[in-house]
Design a protein that fits this description.
Blueprint: H1 6-30, E1 40-46, E2 50-51, E3 58-59, E4 63-70, H2 74-104, H3 113-130, H4 135-195, H5 202-218, E5 221-230, E6 233-247, E7 251-255, E8 258-259, E9 262-266, E10 282-286, E11 292-293, H6 303-312, E12 320-333, E13 351-360, H7 367-373, E14 380-384, E15 387-391, E16 394-401, E17 407-413, E18 418-419, E19 425-426, E20 438-441, H8 450-474, E21 498-502, E22 507-509, E23 553-555, H9 557-561, H10 581-587, H11 606-643, H12 647-681
Antiparallel strand pairs: 1-4, 2-3, 5-6, 6-7, 7-8, 9-10, 10-11, 12-13, 12-20, 13-17, 14-15, 14-20, 16-17, 18-19, 21-22, 21-23
Length: about 675
């Protein structure tokens, strides 16, 4: 049977329901510009009707507020976070590629490659051809040559600085990931403490979703939330939830109240991936397990991946080959980090282990070309069938025809060592490897990052210096040795016009040893002399040019001090005087592709080739950024249509709920009048 005040209670239920609705609208309106806020709505249901035991059977009992809920669609969250990783990746690529482009671009304010090399260098060389015997003309040309070397050293320094900036940014992003992981774990606990008691922690859930959204821009994120059930009553949820966040192909970052962190470890100077890498580049590891963490899988994205691509990207131009064999020389011993021999525990020393790999090379490619393209570190790492080893040096033999008839180069890496599970360095193979297994030197990353542009500069410099030095030291490339076997630097054939600086000693070095040659003698060159004798090919000299990089490119200071030492002729009895046949040969290096070729073009096309690479990468990054941002805006609009607060909609709801509240107030007023009449005037 219903209460005598049943109608009053029905009106009261409406008052409280619509007051709650108005308060919720007020909360929505006040948070209309709050980042990450999700629109809230009051969920109402009709109160359980009462049986009246009359002909009409049941009587409505008013309204109940069952919950205040968020309007959120998980599907849009998943789409938004997946796209946000692309936004982070391509935005980062776009920003840093624009910076790299500025380094290479010629401008009126700062001379670049075109002005220094294509114009001024060859203008001075033309003047030298006109007046080869004039000291001032020689000095002027040497000044332009020094400017060219300074340009490349400055470019290399700029790129190294950019790599160091990227390295610092990697650490900053890792710190941010760790901070987010801790925040999510703390929020998980706070949310469960509230909801396990029957509440709903909507604002805390908004905070958590916002943190995950921010995290998704740095690394790929997947989120799962599952209810926790009572162990004794599996059908009865406890109100708590297990909230898990995985990154980068399922690696657990947060699991409920527990979270994992990443740490950065600087590579040692003996563990570089590329010859030109800056010191102390970071690799990522899980703090709890010590296992390496990578964001470079093809299906991944995010800011962190872009930073690694930009810092380490070598366009997949590293050395990849097939395992041949491990070898040991009983007379050569492994050395520890301090350079000491390692005790083998039985009164002797651990023997050094070397590994040889076979690398396919295009038919017809010279060792000069092979060497000029290399960017592997003097001391670095090699991955053999999935296991990472360090090496302390390498040699190369080329050409070698393998068992399958392929043209290959055989690289041998010395004193390899791996680190075991206990952190101990072991100087022997971890296990037997079958010949033919894949080997990778350093890390091949399919992006044109800083190492790629450093390698391109090195390639141009090596090819240019090699051709220039040979012309300068031996005369015409087509007529290397005269009949009286004279050389171009008096009795010293070890001088190089272009030199490299040994950074460990600060000394300028020449490129190998040269010899006074007679027709038929074997010398260190691949050029054949026409006439009565033949100069056989011996490529050992060319490998020295690997030591030359953009960062250590110099003009011989002896020649700068005494310009008369620069050779301008190779004619008999006319050395270092007024003839200009050598200079004319040097002039051909500018446009004659038979004298020097860089990526199929002449030497002056270096900047165009580099800028075209950068433009392609920058354009690609811009387009992908624009597409990702457009998708992000579209998804955000879809999210906003569900979760966002719209001022017009809230205003309409406010009026609607106000009218409903007033109507229920009128009901209470009417019911009050009825009860007054019944109680006060009829004495009921």
């Amino acid at each position: 049977m219903t209460s005598q005040f049943f109608g009053l209670m029905i009106g009261y239920s409406g008052l409280t329901a619509y007051q709650t609705a108005e308060n919720t609208v007020a909360n929505n309106a006040s948070n209309i510009n709050t980042e990450g806020y999700t629109r809230q709505v009051v969920e109402q249901t009709a109160a359980n009707a009462l049986r009246t035991y009359t002909t009409y059977g049941m009587a409505g009992a008013g309204v109940n507020v069952t919950a205040i809920k968020q309007l959120r669609n998980e599907y849009y969250d998943i789409k938004f976070r997946a796209n946000e990783a692309d936004v982070g990746r391509y935005e980062t690529q776009n920003i840093y590629m624009a910076e790299i482009e500025q380094y290479f671009k010629d401008s009126t304010a700062l001379k670049g490659f075109t002005a220094i090399y294509t114009e001024e260098f060859y203008a001075a060389l033309n003047d030298l051809a006109d007046n080869p015997g004039t000291t001032s003309t020689r000095a002027s040309f040497l000044g332009k040559a020094q400017s060219l070397a300074e340009y490349f050293r400055a470019m290399s320094a700029n790129l190294t600085r950019e790599q160091e900036i990227l390295n610092s940014e990697i650490k900053s992003q890792v710190d941010q990931v760790n901070e987010y992981s801790e925040q999510i774990a703390v929020l998980n606990k706070q949310i469960n403490l509230i909801e396990i008691q029957g509440g709903t922690a909507l604002d805390l859930r908004d905070q958590r979703n916002l943190v995950v959204d921010k995290l998704s821009k740095i690394v790929d994120v997947t989120v799962t939330e599952t209810p926790v059930y009572n162990a004794g009553d599996p059908d009865n949820p406890t109100g708590a939830h297990r909230y898990q966040v995985n990154i980068s192909n399922g690696c657990s970052l947060v699991d409920g109240y527990e979270y994992n962190t990443l740490e950065v470890r600087a590579r040692g100077t003996d563990a570089k991936y590329n010859q030109t890498d800056a010191d102390g580049l970071y690799d990522l590891y899980w703090s709890n397990t010590g296992m390496e963490f990578s964001v470079l899988a093809d299906n991944l994205s995010g800011t962190l991946k872009a930073l690694f691509e930009l810092r380490d990207g070598n366009n997949n131009d590293g050395v990849e080959g097939e395992f041949i064999e491990f070898t040991q020389d009983p007379t050569r011993f492994a050395l520890d980090k301090e350079g000491n021999k390692i005790d083998d525990g039985s009164g002797g020393y651990v023997v050094a282990t070397d590994v040889s790999i076979s690398v396919p090379i295009d038919e017809g490619e010279t060792l000069e070309s092979v060497i000029s393209k290399l960017n592997i570190a003097d001391e670095g790492s090699i991955r053999i069938s999935g296991t990472l080893y360090k090496y302390d040096g390498w040699t190369v033999e080329y050409p070698v025809t393998d068992a399958n008839g392929r043209n290959t180069a055989v690289f041998t890496f010395g004193d390899i060592a791996y680190t075991d599970a206990n952190g101990n360095e072991k100087h022997e193979p971890m296990y037997n490897v079958t010949p033919g297994k894949k080997c990778e030197v350093g890390d091949n990353i399919d992006y044109q990052g800083v190492p790629y542009y450093q390698a391109q500069m090195n390639q141009w410099i090596r090819q240019f210096s090699y051709r220039f030095n040979y012309t300068e030291e031996h005369g015409s490339l087509n007529n290397l040795v005269t009949q009286n076997a004279q050389n171009l630097y008096g009795d010293d054939m070890t001088i190089s016009f272009w030199q490299w600086m040994d950074t460990t000693t600060g000394e300028l070095r020449n490129f190998g040893e040269y010899y006074t040659a007679n027709p038929g003698d074997t010398v260190n060159t691949a050029i054949t002399k026409a006439g009565s004798g033949t100069i056989a090919a011996d490529y050992s000299l060319e490998s020295y040019y690997y030591s030359l990089t953009a960062s250590n490119f110099y003009v011989n200071k002896t020649i700068v001090t005494d310009p008369s030492l620069m050779s301008t002729t190779a004619r008999d009895a006319d050395v270092n005087v007024s003839a200009d046949d050598v200079v004319k040969e040097l002039l051909e290096l500018k446009d004659n592709k038979s004298k020097m070729v860089y990526r199929g073009c002449n030497s002056t096309e270096f900047l165009n080739m580099i800028l075209s690479d950068i433009a392609l990468n920058e354009s690609s990054a811009k387009n992908f950024t624009k597409n990702a941002e457009n998708i992000s805006r579209a998804i955000s609009k879809q999210k906003e249509s569900v979760s966002g607060v719209d001022d017009n909609e809230e205003a309409l709801d406010l009026v609607k709920f106000q009218n409903a509240y007033n109507l229920n107030a009128k009901i209470i007023q009417t019911m009050t009048e009825i009860y007054d009449r019944l109680i006060l005037e009829t004495g009921v």
